[in-house]
Amino acid sequence: MADDLDDELRRLFSDDRLDVHVSPEATDAVLRGADRRRRRRSAMATAVAVVTLVGAGIGLTQLPSSDDHWVGDLLPTSVPTSASSPPPSSSSSVVPTTTVIPSPPNPGGSNPGTGTGKPTSTKPRTTTPSAPPPAETAGVGALVLGMSEADALKTKTLVEPSSPADPEGKCVAYATTSVPDNNAVIISSAKGIVRLTVPSTAKTQRGIGVGSTVAEVKTAYPTAAQSGTELRVEMTGTPRWTYVFETDGSAVTSVRKRLSAGDCPGV
To answer: Tens digits of per-residue pLDDT, 105-134?
Structure first.
């Protein structure tokens, strides 16, 4: 029985009808797939080398041409019955890159590099008016027009004794510690101090003093009125008083402050 089984197996294995015949086209397909796989790996290696060189900053002027093509899978899913056309070749190209350096911003205007800048508006310049000069005061040092003789003596700035300031003896005159003229201060018994002489080294709040020209006085005090050799400027305040600039016709020789409501003759 075992011998019969062995004979039957030998007969089957020797039957030519059970042989598997390989088609010549299948062999060619396998070879073409292997070739495509090799060329694909070569193309990928070339692309990696190009990216590496560009990243390292090396300029490429020309890349060697290659006949390698991007290919599909190694083996077809079915054996073609007829010769298939070769896959279309795909050429790789290197696109040159250009580095654009932006233009610096244009101060005060639009940026010409962007083309989107808007003109800046120019605001009118505002001029701050100059501060007015300090208000003129009706005093010289500790002495003030209208001050009584007793209060003036308390300042310790009057030089005694006094002298009559008018023939009737209604007013008295004093020199001061800063002005040696015996008529530097004239005091009325009813009105108090009616005249104060400014020291020759002092200047008014508007910069006028002994030596200033007549033109300078009129510029500093536009309301100055000429009266003989004097320039008189009525001032506001309480009490009302007047600047008296004595001149020699061209320059100031003395500056006095006079009470407007004084009652001493010739003051």
So the answer is: 555 554 544 545 555 656 667 665 555 556
The secondary structure of 99-159, three-state, reads CCCCCCCCCCCCCCCCCCCCCCCCCCCCCCCCCCCCCCCCEECCEECCCCHHHHHHCCCEE
Number of residues in the chain = 267
**Token digits of residue 175:** 């020199």
User: In this structure, what is the dihedral angle of CA atoms 202, 205, 206, 207, given to the nearest 10 degrees?
Assistant: 20
Three-class secondary structure of residue 82 per DSSP:
coil
pLDDT digits (tens, 9 = 90+) for 28-83: 776 787 778 788 877 777 776 665 665 665 444 444 444 444 444 444 444 444 44
Q: CB under 8 Å to 132, separation ≥6 — which residues?
A: none
Q: Please give the Cα distance from 19 to 27 (Å, whole number).
A: 17
Q: Which tokens go with 134?
A: 């300090």
Q: Where are the domains of the chain?
A: 1-78, 139-259
